[in-house]
Write a structure and sequence with these properties.
GO terms for molecular function: DNA binding; DNA-binding transcription factor activity. Required for the induction the katG gene for catalase. Involved in the response to hydrogen peroxide. This is Probable hydrogen peroxide-inducible genes activator. Pfam families: HTH_1, LysR_substrate. InterPro entries: LysR_HTH_N, LysR_subst-bd, WH-like_DNA-bd_sf, WH_DNA-bd_sf. The protein has 317 residues and is α/β, with parallel strands linked by helices. The chain folds into 2 domains: 85 residues, Winged helix-like DNA-binding domain superfamily/Winged helix DNA-binding domain (Arc Repressor Mutant, subunit A, Orthogonal Bundle), CATH 1.10.10; 220 residues, D-Maltodextrin-Binding Protein, domain 2. It is built from 10 helices and 12 strands. The strands form 2 sheets. Strands 3, 4, 5, 6, 7, 8, 9, 10, 11 and 12 form a 10-stranded mixed β-sheet that branches. Strands 1-2 form a two-stranded antiparallel ribbon. The radius of gyration is 31 Å and the shape is rod-shaped.
């Protein structure tokens, strides 16, 4: 039994006229008649009676009509579903993120994806940096999102690492958080070299390697190496840093500071950003939805106050 036979039968049964059914199907009337006769032979029953003036369904034809419509509808739905998946309009994207990405960037991209492709399901996993690097390499996540860039973890095969594509695509302006009584607390902006002799509170590199490395990159860019004290607060947002009296200042961002930080924050001068990198392995992309998410992430407007990084900052890992 062929779909064309069912289509011809449903058209004739609906129109009750071979000529109109043929025009509807853009076929010749003899072709439609032949398809219906072949279907009758295959099911072993007469489906309709024909006279020169009218066509009527037999009881067998009436029974088949409803079932044939269901079959054709299911086939149409299946074709549409396959098309949506192949076009990246449906499917699943497994996104791995490091903790600094969670407050602002990951929700921002999730919202953009929901608007652009509501049938694409985004599954987000929070992973520490070494685990995230391995996950993007072995294919257990489709896309990785982290601050800064991450290095090839120990044991990763070079040929696998070489397939990973990375785009350092956006950044959030860097801020300094100061004590309320700090002499620079009322300034519009603060140069990092003005704080070079004061004690900087830093996060544990073991707990937050991506965040710690991004801060080190910012300090190197500013050409400063202040005395450092590891924060006792294991909270990434460092809400309790003022209680650690030996700490004079910390580095943060607006999205981090918005989560419970009560001390004054000021922009860094000259301006710096904490960069964020999107990484994926094209050869491991399980479906077109991954490509759609990558394209969307790299082209959608960044969160308010963030910056899109220039092309010369983009790279391949």
């Amino acid at each position: 039994m062929e779909l064309r036979q069912l289509e011809a039968f449903v058209a004739v049964a609906t129109e009750l006229h071979f000529g109109r059914a043929a025009r509807k199907l853009h076929m010749g009337q003899p072709t439609v008649s032949d398809l219906v006769r072949r279907l009758e032979r295959e099911v072993g029953a007469q489906l309709m009676t024909r006279t020169t003036r009218r066509v009527t369904l037999t009881s067998a034809g009436s029974e088949l009509l409803g079932r044939a419509k269901v079959i054709l509808d299911e086939v149409g739905s299946a074709c549409a579903a396959v098309h949506r998946v192949s076009a990246g309009q449906a499917g699943t994207v497994r996104l791995g993120i490091t903790p600094p990405v969670a407050p602002m960037l990951a929700p921002h991209l999730a919202t953009a994806l929901e608007r652009a492709a509501p049938d694409v399901h985004l599954v987000t996993r929070r992973l520490w940096l070494p685990d995230l690097a391995r996950a993007i390499a072995d294919g257990s996540v489709d896309v990785a999102l982290t601050c800064g860039s991450f290095e090839e973890p120990p044991g990763m095969l070079g040929e696998i690492a070489g397939e990973i594509v990375g785009e350092m695509f956006c950044g959030e302006p860097l801020l300094v958080a100061l004590r309320p009584d700090h002499p620079h607390a009322r300034r519009d902006a603060v140069a990092l070299d003005e704080l070079a002799d004061e004690r900087l509170g830093i996060h544990s590199a073991a707990l937050f390697p991506a965040w710690a490395r991004a801060h080190q990159q910012a300090l190197r860019a500013a050409g400063v190496s202040p005395p450092m004290v590891e924060l006792a607060d294991t909270d990434l947002f460092a809400r309790c840093w003022p209680a650690q009296r030996e700490v004079d200042w910390i580095l943060t961002t607006a999205s981090m500071a918005a989560i419970g930080l009560t001390t004054p924050t000021r922009p860094v001068c000259p301006a710096q950003v904490i960069p964020y990198t999107l990484q994926w392995n094209p050869s491991r992309a399980a479906n077109a939805a991954v490509g759609r998410f990558v394209h969307l992430a790299l082209t959608t407007a960044v969160p308010e106050g963030w910056v899109t990084l220039a092309d010369h900052l983009r790279h391949q890992c």
